[in-house]
Amino acid sequence: MTASRSWACRPRSRSSPARSTNRRAAGPRSTSICSSTGFTTKAVTSLRSRCRSCSSTTSAPSSAGCEPDPRLSHESDEEERPMKILTMKLTGPTRRAFGAAAVAAALIAGLGATGADAQTVEHPEGFNPDEWVIVASVINTTNPYMISNIEGAEAISEALGIPLEIVNSNNSSQTSISSIYAILASGKKPIMFVNTVASSDAPTIVEAVKQAGGYVTIWWNKPDEYKPQDVGDNFVAFQKHTGVDSGRCGAQALAEALGGEGDVILLPGVQDSTTSKTRVAGFRAEIAENYPGINILEERPSNWDPQLGARNARDLIVKYGDQIDGVWSADDGMQIGAMQSFENAGLLDRVKFASDGLYPKTLEDIKSGRGNNAIVGETFHRGYMASAIGLYTAYLAASGQIVPSELEDNKRESFFKLSCVTPENYEQYLQYDEEGAPAEFVERLIANGPWDTEPVPLVGGGVEVLPES
User: Fold this and answer.
1) What does pTM read for this prediction?
2) Domain ranges, residue 319
């Protein structure tokens, strides 16, 4: 693997059993996590793999555990401590990010082998997996959704028997792009999934992949006018769950829980993000159309980051105090941080929350009734499903099993099913967080194809239209 300033890791290797079409461990496989995280890495004997170093900004690795770089650490206020632990734990194994957890940090602490065998795929004649590398680029590694993206990538890597590189963008477009360039310089052709930091990143990344002879799917964010159909087969597809529907789900649940009256704050994601913009638009439209008694006090973009969500919530509590009746977040990572700030301020029992993602910590809080049943609305989808769908679609193109330019438009710009979740119906989604769920989803994905796999089949496509209200 080619070293760069933004990443430098030792591959995490597995043994190499003979490959077949039976359900057994895939091999050979190696996984690297590459980023500038601001955390030092120490070897842990119980972990199945370990990074050699994280970046040029971290101090040299030492011998056991994982600790934050003291030069980059924040003040140890109550809002940030759980999210710090969550980030530190990522330097262990990346699988099972969606195991049961008592606090946000335990989302990562529970990582380990899934216990489910991986299915090894028989590649079509003429496709040499040794010429390829699977690449998954995520926005950060503090958000549980991004950790789940990594799970899906690992499951696909195992199933296909192709090594995996993980890019941690660390909330930086520059880090994402430079890290991808460095991987492409290794000479292997990429099969790539990118959860873009900003919509404007997509053209640069796609062009680099095209020049390298690879195939890429972009999830969530791209400029509306930038279409795979216009770029060519190397930009296989743009894929997402609809943001407007997500925002409407949260708005309806929050407004109903408040009896149609109250003051709320919003925590969007990254400002230059199609996903965040569409979710906010859906929330605002639902409120404007159906709940005139709900007043939006303020928006604070929080970059999909639990730590920033906690800080912004804390600042808004200082500004508005107990005037805040409800909080909507564009995803659960930010909600996890916000709820901690409200709990620290002694306000959690009187404020209602709605968000997107139904993360395991959120499920725990719903089941326990935390904060006087504070969480009232969610949406269901999983990061491991998104990355697995994206990577398998790109693999089908790379291996010649599909020709992207011959696909219907809704398979080039795709909407996958999103479900609204409440405290009344959440139990039907618990199965997708059980041990081995990512590997089982990948098995169904390979059997059914990227557009027909429950619980997230293709439901539409095109450019998502923002509501006028």
Assistant:
1) 0.76
2) 243-380
